[in-house]
Amino acid sequence: MQVLFIHQNFPGQYPHLAAALLARGDQPVAIGGPSAKELPGIPLHRYNPMPAGGVPACHPWAEDFQIKCLRAEAVARLLERLIGQGLAPDLVVGHPGWGELLAIKDLLPAVPVLHHVEFVYQLAGADVGFDPEFASEAWRASSRVRLKRASQLLALHDLDWGLAPTHWQAATAPAEFQNRISVIHEGIDTRHIRPRAGAFVKLHRAGLTLEPGAEVVSFVARNLEPYRGFHRFMRMLPQLQALRPKAQVVIVGGEGVSYGSAPAAGGSWKSVLLDELEGQLDLNRIHFVGNVPLAVLHELFRVTACHVYLTVPFVLSWSLLEAMACGAVVIGSATAPVREVIRDGENGLLVDFFDGDGLAERITAVLADPAAHRPLGEAARQDMVAHYDLTTVCLPQQLALVDRVAQIGQGQIGVKSMGSPH
């Protein structure tokens, strides 16, 4: 079976699935953008989304949709050429979030498409308006979000089947499409992402070596920004440092913006928060390490006495599950995506996203009595193995779903006969 992956940042969510298809004898092929990376044995064809004459001017509300149309056209032109050279996929697997699949049914009308349903923008009840500090009453802000949904809703009307990593993320799709979405996580390689004796982390700039048993508090985000509760975490630190004068705080993440907006006055959210808290923090005990290799990140999860994960209602981070797979004691925000994974007092602890005092108190309790909280990390590890393991749980389910969706195009099975995913 020939499977065409379309993802601007290939392999994106698909490195394990694409490799597994290749290993079992299928023929995966990929289309990606300029930043896409090759996987061994899988042909990668890159497209350039920029038109020769540059991006034409348009109404500000239409800018997002225009960029997605440019990607869709670039993918379509490349795909048209590849089809002329003999490409004949039995299935297309892709992420519709960047517009790349908008024209796919016009080129491959009979080929089923499996969409990655990561998150559908919500007008209310999710990330938009969740944090009053960044909420906007202006109708223009709401209209921008409404129009950003256009490409997502168009994609949903074209999907043959969808794949979402969590039930909450699947539920962001309109109700009429949810009976065509299966919930299977990308998977955590718990054989390698696991507790390990002798773990340590060296902070070269501070001249410290952190080992299990030390009062280490970790915070991780791709970028340090309000969507991941960075501002709430930072404002809690003066209280935590007063309560636990030996605590070492390790903060992993870049200074850009992955989600939401940059500070209105410019700079990074890190610089904004450090300016706001000037004179209130002992910076000798707070270590900003930027982005680190995965191996180092996993060592931090093995060393940390308490890992903090905060997020507005939005896409769940892989880092949370990887911390749990390493047996870390996690304190998470009691937002819907996190509550799907963490059961308060059973495999972790939950705290209100806005409750800085409560967060400081919970961290303090963990640091004061790590032995009493150790069972939480052990239970977290067991849950990751039982429900999120890449090899034994998620990848077999993904492969089975790929085979079932491919049968739609062969006329062997209809969408209705696929059954409910939940």
Q: Quote the beta fraction.
A: 15-25%
User: How many structural domains can be distinguished in the coordinates?
Assistant: 2
CATH superfamily of the largest domain: Glycogen Phosphorylase B
- Low-confidence parts, pLDDT < 50 over ≥5 residues? none
Oligomer: single chain
Straight-line N-to-C gap: 27 Å
Written description of the protein model:
The protein is of the alpha/beta class and 422 residues long. The chain folds into two domains: 214 residues, Rossmann fold (3-Layer(aba) Sandwich), CATH 3.40.50; 187 residues, 3-Layer(aba) Sandwich (Rossmann fold), CATH 3.40.50. It is 36% helix and 16% strand. The strands form three sheets. The chain has a seven-stranded parallel beta sheet, with helices on both faces. Strands 12-11-10-13-14-15 form a six-stranded parallel beta sheet, with helices on both faces. Helix 6 runs parallel beside helix 7 and helix 6 crosses helix 11. The mean pLDDT is 93.
Layout of helices and strands, plus pairs?
Layout: E1 2-6, H1 15-23, E2 27-32, E3 44-46, H2 63-84, E4 91-94, H3 104-107, E5 113-116, H4 139-158, E6 161-164, H5 167-170, E7 181-183, E8 201-203, E9 208-210, E10 216-223, H6 230-243, E11 248-254, H7 269-276, E12 286-290, H8 294-303, E13 306-309, H9 318-325, E14 330-333, H10 336-339, E15 349-351, H11 356-368, H12 370-387, H13 390-409
Parallel strand pairs: 1-2, 1-4, 2-3, 4-5, 5-6, 6-7, 10-11, 10-13, 11-12, 13-14, 14-15
Antiparallel strand pairs: 8-9
